[in-house]
Amino acid sequence: MFGIFDSKTEVAEAKIFFGSTQESREAKTQRKSPYDGAVVSTAPVCNAEDAQKALKIAQMASREAKKSPLSQRIKWLEDVAMKLETEKEAFAMMLAKEVAKPIAFARIEVERCAETIKITAMELANLHGETIPTDLMPSGKKTTAFFRREPVGVVVAITPFNFPLNLVAHKIAPALGAGNAVVLKPTPEAPMSAYMLSQLFVESPYAVQDALSVVYGDAEVGSALVTSDIPRVISFTGSVPVGNIITKQAGIKKVSLELGGNAATYIDKSADLALAAKRCAYGAFYNSGQVCISLQRIYVNEDVYEQFAELMAEETRKLKVGSPYEEDTFMGPLIDEESKHRAKSWVASAKNEGARVIAGGDEVGGIFPPTVMADVTDEMKIVCEEVFAPIVSLVSVPNYDTAIEKMNDSPYGLQFSIFTNDLKLVQCFIDDAECGGVVINDIPTLRFDVQPYGGAKLSGVGREGPKWALEEFTEIKSVVIC
Q1: Is 311 helix (H, G, I), strand (E, B) or coil?
Q2: Do residues 107 and 154 both lie within one domain?
Q3: Are strands 16-18 and 21-23 parallel, antiparallel or unpaired?
Q4: What's the rounded Cα separation, in Å, for the pair 331 and 325?
Q5: Same domain as 476, residue 338
Q6: Which domain holds residue 194?
Q7: Among residues 206, 413, 425, 437, which one has the fewest Cβ atoms lying within 10 Å of its Cβ?
Q8: Chain centroid to CA 222: how far?
Q9: Are 213 and 90 spatial neighbours (Cβ–Cβ below 8 Å)?
Q10: Whole-number pLDDT of residue 257
C-alpha cells in the first residue's frame, strides 16, 4: 500500500480527510528532513474554516459512531493494527524522513503503535459499568440501578512531533474505539506519518463512515478546533505554554493534557553503577532527548559521584550519532536548527556558571551530540527548565533526603526513578516522589503503552494508556429502574 514511500528521495503528499473524503490543495507546506534538508513530504494549507468543516462532519458522524456495534469497532482496530505491521518498513522510513528518527527506533515506534491499537481493542471488552445498591442507606429504596459508559461525541486530538505515530494512536484508537468521531490535527513536522496511519483507519472495511477527519496547520487551526462548542474532549500532547492557552480557550469541555517534564533519577551508593550508567545514557539521549520523560537530572550520592560520572561519560561516548537511515545509528539531529542553537546556548551558559562538559558538547557532522554536564548546581537554567535536547546534568548530593527534595523542587512532575539496592529507600521513594509515575532500578524514560501515563503539577491533567484514555473519551450515564 505504501511501498512507494520506502524511497529516501520520494516526496510524499499528505491530504485532508473531511471524514472519509480526501481533499488536496494547491497551497501546500513542505516538510524538510532535519538531517539533510531535503523535502520529504507536503501537506495542504488549512485554515479555521477547514477546522470548522471537519468538526461539523464529525458531529454528524458521531451519531452513527455511537450506534456502531462494539464488535465492529474491535475488528476495525484489529484490522488497522494488522495492516500497520504489514507496512512497518514504509512507516518507519517516513518517520526517519520527517523527524530524523533513527531507522531502528522508527521500527520500534511502528511496532509500539500497532501494540497500542491492539491493547485498545482488548480494553474495549472492559468498557462497562456496574450495578449500584440504592437501598444502601435508609433514605434510599430497592431499585434496579446501574451506570454505563457512553461515547462523548466528538474528540479533538492534537499531537506532537517526537512520537508522531504512536501518540496519534494513543488518542484516536481509544476515541474511535469508544464510539466517538475524531478530528485530528497532527504536528506540522510529520504530516505524512499521521496521514498514512489515518488512511488505514479511514479505508478499513470496518470503518465507521466519516468518523475520522484530519486537518493540518498550527495556531489558527488549533484555536478553531479548541474554541468550538462541538467537541466534548480536547486531547493535547505538547508544551506547557500551548497547554495553558488551550485550557483558557476550551470553555466547558473535558481537557486532557500531557505536557512537559524534567525527569530525574537518584543514584544511591548501593546501586549497580555500571548498569545505572548504561541505562541513564540511553534514557538521556534516546530520541535526541526529545521525550517528555527524557532523563535530564541525575542526582548522585557524593560517595560514588566521581565513579558514576566517569562511567556515564564512557557510556555516552559509545553512542553513534549520524544518519537516521543507518541501522546502527543511536541518535540523529534535533528537530530543527532553533532547537540545536538553544541546546548549545544552554551548555555555554552552564559552563560560564561553573559546570563541566565531560562528554559531547561539540557538534558532530552538524548534529548536536549526547552531552553530559558535571558539577551542575540548582540555580543553572540547564537543570531548572525542560531542555528537550540530548543534555543530561549530574548533581552531587550527600544523601537520599537531599536528592528527593531537589527532584521534587520542580514545576514538573511526570516521571522520576531511583537506582538502589536498599529496599527501605525504594519504599520511601514511592511515597515521596511528587510525580505521575516512578521507576525502580531503571530510567524514568521507561514507559509501557499498557500503563497509565500522565503527570502532576505542570506536567498535565488526565491520563493516557488505552484503558485510561477510554475513560477520558467516555461519559457516565446513571440509570435507575423503579
Answers
A1: helix
A2: yes
A3: antiparallel
A4: 11
A5: no
A6: 3-259+459-481
A7: 206
A8: 18
A9: no
A10: 97
Amino acid at 159: T
Q: Which residue has the cell 462548542?
A: 229
Distances (CA, A) of 478 to 131, 132, 297: 10, 9, 46
Q: How far apart are CA 333 and CA 452, in angstroms?
A: 30
The total domain count for the chain is 2
Using the predicted structure, report yes or no on whether residue 220 has a pLDDT greater than 50. Answer: yes
Strands 154-158 and 181-185: parallel
Q: Which positions ≥6 away from 319 have C-beta within 8 Å?
A: 281, 285, 330, 331, 370
Is 454 inside a domain boundary? Answer: no
Sequence-ordered strand ranges (E) for 326-473: 356-359, 371-374, 391-397, 412-413, 415-419, 437-440, 456-457, 460-461
Least confident of 143-147, 310-314, 380-384, 431-435: 380-384
193 and 228 assigned to the same domain: yes
Would you say residue 26 has pLDDT above 60?
A: yes
CATH of the domain at 395: 3.40.309.10
How confident is the model over 7-32, as a mean pLDDT? Answer: 92
7 and 112 co-located in one domain: yes
In this prediction, residue 285 carries a pLDDT of 98
Kindly compute the dihedral angle of the four CA atoms of residues 176, 251, 16, 33, in this order, to the nearest 10 degrees. Answer: -100
Whether residue 31 has pLDDT greater than 90: yes
Contact (CB, 8 A) for 303 and 398: no
Compute the CA torsion angle 145, 150, 153, 158 (nearest 10 deg): 130
The pLDDT tens digits of the residues spanning 356-368 come to 999 999 998 899 9
Q: Are 90 and 6 in contact (CB under 8 A)?
A: yes
Active centre residues (catalytic): 258, 292
Same domain assignment for residues 313 and 196 = no
In the chain, how long is the greatest CA-to-CA distance? 76
Residue pLDDT, tens place only, 148-163 = 999 999 999 999 999 9
Give pLDDT tens digits for 292-305.
999 999 999 999 99
DSSP state of 4: G
Whichever domain contains 198, its CATH number is 3.40.605.10
- Domain annotation covers residue 188: yes
What is the structure's pLDDT at 4? 45
pTM over 0.70, yes/no? yes
Based on the fold, state whether residues 243 and 337 are members of the same structural domain.
Answer: no
The answer on 377 and 305 residing in a single domain is yes
The answer to whether residues 49 and 159 belong to one domain is yes
Q: Indicate the residue type of 471.
A: E
pLDDT of residue 7: 58
Give the CA count within 13 Å in the CB-facing half-sphere of 215: 28
> Which residue, among 373, 287, 297, has the nearest Cα to 331 in the 3D structure?
287
For residue 220, what is the enclosing H or E element? helix 219-227
Residue 453 lies in a domain: no
Q: What are phi and psi of 300, to 5 degrees?
A: -120, 130
